[in-house]
Write a sequence for this structure.
């Protein structure tokens, strides 16, 4: 019996609510490492957090579920997939605010 390679999924998301000043980026990077995802996360000047997650489809889905709650001090109002497909960069990076 041959093994089927696990499907890779890449999503670009926007997370809205009280998501800045609550350690969201650090929490995201830590969780992405635990889930073996690549990509990046950054704050936006409009108060949102933006991220790209790439890796096994089930791990990306799990990451999106976690982002709907966020770290303890966050109050997530919405997680919106802006774009899906393509590939992610190697590793996971916390990028500067844009």
């Amino acid at each position: 019996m041959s093994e089927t390679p696990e499907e890779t999924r890449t999503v670009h998301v926007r997370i809205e609510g009280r998501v800045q000043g609550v350690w969201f980026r650090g929490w995201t990077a830590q969780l992405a490492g635990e889930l073996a995802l690549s990509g990046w996360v950054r704050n936006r000047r409009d108060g949102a957090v933006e991220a790209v997650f790439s890796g096994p489809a089930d791990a990306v889905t799990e990451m999106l579920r976690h982002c709907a709650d966020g770290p303890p001090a966050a109050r997530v109002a919405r997680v919106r997939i802006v774009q899906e497909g393509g590939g992610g960069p190697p590793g996971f990076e916390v990028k500067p605010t844009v």
About this structure: The two ends are 48 Å apart (CA to CA). Residues 24-34 form the longest helix (11 residues).
